[in-house]
User: Which sequence fits this backbone?
């Protein structure tokens, strides 16, 4: 059964709001969302998450806008155990680190990447 939902909630810690659009296929949901906050400084986050059969994350693209500029990150998993960040293979910490040094496996949306089939 396919469908979609829109959820919006307040993020009290950062004095902001987040909205997520969730589109679900039979076993491969997708989501996109935006968060706008004011603490510790005003910024906006936009993201898109794609999964494959079995709800396994395949791609997470994030863009952050602040007063000093925009930064983006494109995390991908090829389904065979290889991960990339912004197109380059990451080998630090068992191939689980992004270009910014953020452990992919620690992010809630990508925590299952190591178990991808």
Assistant:
């Amino acid at each position: 059964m396919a469908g979609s939902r829109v959820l919006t909630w307040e993020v009290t810690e950062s004095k902001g709001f987040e909205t997520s659009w969730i589109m679900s296929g039979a076993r491969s949901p997708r989501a996109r969302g935006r968060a706008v906050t004011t603490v510790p400084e005003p910024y906006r986050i936009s993201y898109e998450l794609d999964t494959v059969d079995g709800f396994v994350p395949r791609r997470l693209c994030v863009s952050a806008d602040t007063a000093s500029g925009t930064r983006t990150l494109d995390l991908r998993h090829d389904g065979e155990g290889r991960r990339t960040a912004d197109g380059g293979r990451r080998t630090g910490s068992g191939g689980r680190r992004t270009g910014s040094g953020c452990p992919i496996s620690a992010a809630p949306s990508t925590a299952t990447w190591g178990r991808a089939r």
Notes: The two ends are 23 Å apart (CA to CA). The first strand starts at residue 3 and ends at 11. Strands lie at 3-11, 16-24, 30-37, 43-52, 56-66, 69-77, 83-85, 88-89.
